[in-house]
Design brief:
The protein is of the alpha/beta class. It has 2 domains: 2-33 and 48-113, Immunoglobulin-like (Sandwich), CATH 2.60.40; 122-407, Alkaline phosphatase D (PhoD) (Purple Acid Phosphatase, chain A, domain 2, 4-Layer Sandwich). Helix content is 20%, strand content 32%. It contains 7 helices and 19 strands. The protein has helices at residues 2-18, 136-142, 163-174, 177-183, 205-218, 264-274, 302-315, and strands at 26-32, 40-47, 52-59, 65-71, 80-87, 95-102, 105-113, 122-127, 147-151, 188-191, 238-242, 245-249, 281-286, 320-326, 345-350, 361-368, 374-381, 388-395, 400-407. It has a 6-stranded mixed sheet with strand order 10-9-8-17-18-19, with no helix packed on it. A hairpin with a 4-residue loop joins strand 18 (388-395) and strand 19. It is globular and about 65 Å long. The N and C termini lie far apart (46 Å).
Length: 410
């Protein structure tokens, strides 16, 4: 234990000394993506002169030091390029202190917690449509959440853009100091929305494939991807598990037509995954509303929406919650609502007419975007068989603007 204390003290001193002398070869990052029982991916934006990444990984429990070296390969010969490294041989239920060096220059320390087998409290952030943050990322960092979920709108592309422009756009966003400070503090996962996919419902597959390729460069997400390289079947759909919560991120862009939003294959895969889980809460998240009226709502695709409800009725799922975002609060909130105050809304949707008997209800939270000076947070707490989900939204000053508790019976 004494040697570990000495190591931590030395690390703190090194951090203070190097706080303003980070490697100029690291332009953004490093940040962790989804963390499972055995590891994660660590993402960097590097200068083309970078050649090597070294990690010193020490676990708090056993005071063991693991050392990793990774050769940096600039596959696409870019002046500034995204690069990820894979850690997949760690141990579950451990806290690791990772010291990161690029070409022998100290960059940052990362605290990494692998998945816990015992029941524990969880909290994660939600946001979309970044816009101008006005300091909001500092408040998000201070929540010390387990991870961050982006529901689209991270950046913006035109439908006629090129792959080079997509990459440049992402690079410019990632180099923003306040955003980078936040992303390096918290593991990050994402799906995309209308503004950051780079294509419309009528775009050809070549552009869609390029957009998926760039998305994967900047959002590694999970080591065990649901989708393959060409994304033919599921788009960017992904399932994530954290303790007793399963999170399903939907792709609302890849399969969009005049009559479909998600596509039957993606919906089938979603319910195939849901049926195999016994988590306390199953959260289905999308950049667009499910049951609220809006220009981009799932309600506008009636045949596919009914297909979704029929699947939902057959599955008989406990603890299911829908979560969605609205760009500029474009949902219909009814009368007597002050639109100058970004609002999170909860809707309890009755789909009893899609069942063979008995009332069936589902709850949806729809939250305002970061560009509306708001972010949201989900907390899961309580003892087994008495778990509580708390949905909260905050303004740009870090003050609570909405709070609602649900149990597993909704």
């Amino acid at each position: 234990m004494k040697s570990l204390q000495n190591y931590i003290l030395a690390s703190l001193l090194l951090t203070n000394v190097c706080a303003f002398s980070q490697s100029n070869k690291v332009l953004s990052g490093p940040f962790c993506t989804y963390v499972d029982s055995y590891g994660t991916q660590i993402w960097f934006l590097l200068d083309s002169s970078a050649t090597n990444i070294h990690l010193d990984i020490r676990d708090y429990n056993n005071d063991n030091l693991l050392e990793y070296n990774f050769d940096v390969v600039n596959v696409h010969d870019l002046n500034e390029f995204p690069f990820k490294i894979i850690l997949d041989d760690l141990v579950s239920n451990m806290e690791y202190l990772i010291s990161v060096f690029v070409d022998d220059v100290f960059v940052k320390e990362i605290d990494l917690f692998t998945s816990r087998p015992h029941l524990d409290d969880i909290q994660f952030l939600l946001g979309s449509n970044m816009g101008f943050s006005n300091g909001i990322f500092k408040h998000m960092t201070n929540t010390k959440s387990d991870f961050m979920v982006w529901l689209g709108g991270y950046t913006s592309f035109s439908s006629s853009t090129s792959i080079d422009n997509m990459i440049d756009n992402y690079i410019n966003i990632r180099k923003k100091t306040d955003l980078n400070d936040f992303m390096t503090s918290t593991p990050q996962i994402a799906t995309w929305g209308v503004s950051d996919c780079g294509f419309s419902s009528t775009s050809n597959f070549s552009l869609k494939d390029s957009a998926h390729f760039v998305f994967d460069l900047f959002w590694p997400n999970s080591l065990k991807k649901t989708y393959n390289y060409t994304y033919f079947d599921y788009g960017t759909y992904q399932k994530f598990n954290y303790n007793d919560v399963d999170l399903f991120l939907l792709d609302s862009r890849t399969f969009i037509t005049d009559t479909t939003l998600y596509g039957h294959k993606q919906i089938d895969r979603l319910f195939q995954d849901i049926k195999t889980t016994n988590s306390s809460f199953k959260i289905i998240a999308s950049p667009v509303p499910f049951t609220f009226s809006s220009d981009d709502s799932f309600l506008n695709y009636q045949d596919e929406f009914n297909y979704f409800l029929n699947k939902l009725s057959i599955a008989q799922i406990d603890g299911l919650i829908l979560v969605s975002s609205s760009f500029n609060n474009n949902i219909d909130l009814g009368e007597d609502v002050n639109m100058n105050e970004p609002l999170t809304k909860m809707n309890i949707y009755d789909f009893t007419n899609h069942t063979n008997g008995g009332t069936q209800l589902i709850s949806e939270f729809n939250f305002p975007s970061i560009s509306d000076n708001s972010y949201s947070l989900i907390k899961i707490s309580g003892q087994r068989n008495n778990r509580i989900l708390t949905f909260e939204s905050y303004n740009e000053n870090g003050n609570v603007t909405y709070r609602k508790n649900l149990d597993t019976d909704n």
